[in-house]
């Protein structure tokens, strides 16, 4: 197997792994400042722009929920290549949120509603590793975390392990925080992997 340093990237071709916080309980607390529908419309526009920049660009979206994580969009599948990104994404996201809510017991949702960031990071890195093993040339991978939930202290070790794995694979982790608080986990992730950490100011109209 080739060493990590001998891997060569396909010129101007990107693999973007988007970890989208879809925790319904966190978004419920943010709806007055930044409704989820507004957030989603910007995400869809951004993903379509990435795919338009180069038809060989590869976009994968992983939804991060309260109870579990799942792949909800992959631009390389035959179904997604023939239609608008938003159509598939919205359908799969709706199914994801319904399942996530059904898996939560009301008694277990109190106080801070953490999202399973550790799970989605692990899934993204496993996907990237699979791409690495397909040949000597592959898209340039990058992870983008679109996050609104507070940090879950119990996930610290798992998240740090993922961060160091990304560093070893030379995969930058970019972070965009749309919640009320900064994320110490994602600040470390972006710093260690030489990614970008951003917490934009949400205007009163919620970026509409």
TrEMBL record:
UniProt KW keywords: DNA damage, DNA repair, Metal-binding, Nucleus, Transcription, Transcription regulation, Zinc, Zinc-finger
Subcellular locations according to the entry: Nucleus
Gene3D superfamilies xref list: von Willebrand factor, type A domain
GO biological process, one term: regulation of DNA-templated transcription
Coiled-coil residue windows: none
An annotated Gene Ontology molecular function: zinc ion binding
InterPro entries: TFIIH_Tfb4/GTF2H3, vWFA_dom_sf
GO cellular component, one term: transcription factor TFIIH core complex
Keyword Transmembrane helix: no
Record-linked Pfam families: Tfb4
Function statement: Component of the general transcription and DNA repair factor IIH (TFIIH) core complex, which is involved in general and transcription-coupled nucleotide excision repair (NER) of damaged DNA and, when complexed to CAK, in RNA transcription by RNA polymerase II. In NER, TFIIH acts by opening DNA around the lesion to allow the excision of the damaged oligonucleotide and its replacement by a new DNA fragment. In transcription, TFIIH has an essential role in transcription initiation.
Subunit composition and interactions: Component of the 7-subunit TFIIH core complex composed of XPB, XPD, TFB1/GTF2H1, GTF2H2/P44, TFB4/GTF2H3, TFB2/GTF2H4 and TFB5/GTF2H5, which is active in NER. The core complex associates with the 3-subunit CDK-activating kinase (CAK) module composed of CYCH1/cyclin H1, CDKD and MAT1/At4g30820 to form the 10-subunit holoenzyme (holo-TFIIH) active in transcription.
Family named by the database record: Belongs to the TFB4 family.
Official protein name in the record: General transcription and DNA repair factor IIH subunit TFB4
Record organism: Genlisea aurea
Organismal lineage: Eukaryota, Viridiplantae, Streptophyta, Embryophyta, Tracheophyta
